[in-house]
Request: fold
Amino acid sequence: MKYAFLFLIAYGIIELFVLKRVQNKIAFCFLCVSGILAGAANLLFEFSFFDLIKGVLQ
Amino acid sequence: MRKMSMRQTLMMVVSIIFSPTVRLFSAFVSGRGDQGAWVAPIVAGCGMILFVLVLDRLIRDNRNFYQHLEYSFGIFGAKALAWIYILWGILLSSVQIRYYAQRVASTIYTEIDMGVFVFIFLAICVYVLNSGIVTVARMNELFLPVILIVTVALLGLLSAKIDLRALFPVNNPLSIAHVALFNLASMGYVTFTLFFVDEIEQKEKFKKYAVWGTIGVSLCLVWLLLAVIGTIGPTVIEKLPYPFFAVVKQISIGEFLQHIEAFVITLWIVSDFVMTCFISSAILKLMGLVTKKGNTRELLIPYFALCACLVPMMGRTNFELETLSEKVFIPLNLILLFAMPIVILLVGRIKNKIKKHCAGERKMI
Reply:
């Protein structure tokens, strides 16, 4: 799961620049970029949403 | 375009409620509501019937959810709210997938990495949703009777073990109200029906089916809470990660019928599957409406890949997941699934009145 973002990078590049069949580019790019950022953040910082709410609740 | 009937749509909602029911209700719900928690679904059911009347008005207007937002809040307000719904929907799907994977990994396949289950689950979701939500609705017509029959059979077997002393006294209205809010958060998934309005036939039957559905679901929830609280008591429930699962494990009829908990796991997975498909499909549809591109099939793979990336971020342990649900997702469900449709209806009605008033004045002039 942590490496799903690598799949997203490859899939996004193939769909957008090789096959060029994506019609809804805004939504497609939004999902790919969010996935890549989320995956990378998770891999680098082991971030969890629980830490976020823990901070807010304290 | 293939359409689904209102009955099929609401059947999906009933299937969806099974998963959070079994996961949440018996855990936090009885923990917070003490022995009186079983009264809460009745309160929630009454609130839900009133909410069905609100939804019925919105469905009769023959606009989908995004069109309602646009009508009530204008183009920019609608876009901003729609993106909030999209972000929330993505996180909601991810947390449901995480719950599914965590449950399978901690109950049956304890040696296998959670990622394997997530990958298989998401691959199936992509494959099925490629044919559209109507396919899931038709599949669910087979799933729901099985879910209901097995649940009722299990509750029937548990009923013999209920200790009535564990269910009384019912004397804490505040905690019952709190539990009722938890119940409403799960029942609120019916609001997603608004997202599919243009794919649904027989919209005029919404009120009838939804009211009967709410009554049936509320009675089942009362029975479930009676069975779980009455069998092991409210104090023990708080300490168990999956209380309903623990209770079902106790069922055996001699050597003939044992290990029935496997049924519950299967039904849980089916319910999670329907829920993930339903929510994801609604969110992708909204995404298509916001960006004004109808075809959202090409977004399926990036959507579920994004969910796969988010799944490990939802929490490290079951405790973190439950806290996240309790503190973030349940309040958000209540705001976005209950409060927002009421606000949309009110603003829409006020706008209608102002328009009529202005039209009347113009005629006078």
Remarks:
- The longest helix of chain A spans residues 25-45.
- The radius of gyration of chain A is 15 Å.
- Chain A has a mean pLDDT of 83.
- Residues 4 and 38 of chain A are 10 Å apart (CA to CA).
